[in-house]
């Protein structure tokens, strides 16, 4: 109390505090003990309890002035004491607002804990590695993913066209390597380098990141997965090319084309004497005439020998 105009009056204290005996003014107010509250002014401190998972607020100003236990701690129902450390198994942590020592929840994916009152956390991985699914250790990021380390999970890399992510990447965009010669990809989150389509080539190390048309000579076609502009092979017998890819010839009956043809019909020549061809892309093959038959010049099939002549068969006249 303090004296004013020779009349004694109680000091008026702020909420959460009280005036001890002989208090002269508000400067002499004291905080209420933990687990008690005061509405302030001339009120005294009163005990109160909190529901499970909570503890009394410091300088409590009303009945039920409670705060939740911080993670890793618990409190039982109707308590007036501080939250206590949890006793959780390994790879778990105290549940939010835990009400018992064993009120625990599993750690989230990619995290773990040592148990007790410890919180879940990811391992401190090096750059290019991320935590395993159970959070117990680290593993190198797979191709197509990256991690800056320090427990960050591996996430997808975005590369420029013609490039693929390096294994163990540490950066989202810069840890990319060129696709092997003759292959490419679309970039972005695409990770697999695939062979260039027929008639195109790529060579990222030479600055050709995407599949570019080849420049093969007539009668030649680009190799599958071509690595440079003239990475070509000659068209085989029965095929021609004037568009970077070999296609079947369309030779007339008893004609065929040789390797390196560049026209569907224009490079066809007549079969030699004793040979036949069905035309199209078929080659010239020896005629297989029966005895008494032969293949005269310009004939398209075996014919019977004239009277007074004979044939030994096959293609013999």
From TrEMBL:
Coiled coil: none
Superkingdom of origin: Eukaryota
Residue stretches spanning the membrane: none
Record-given protein name: Tyrosine-protein kinase ephrin type A/B receptor-like domain-containing protein
Organism: Saprolegnia parasitica (strain CBS 223.65)
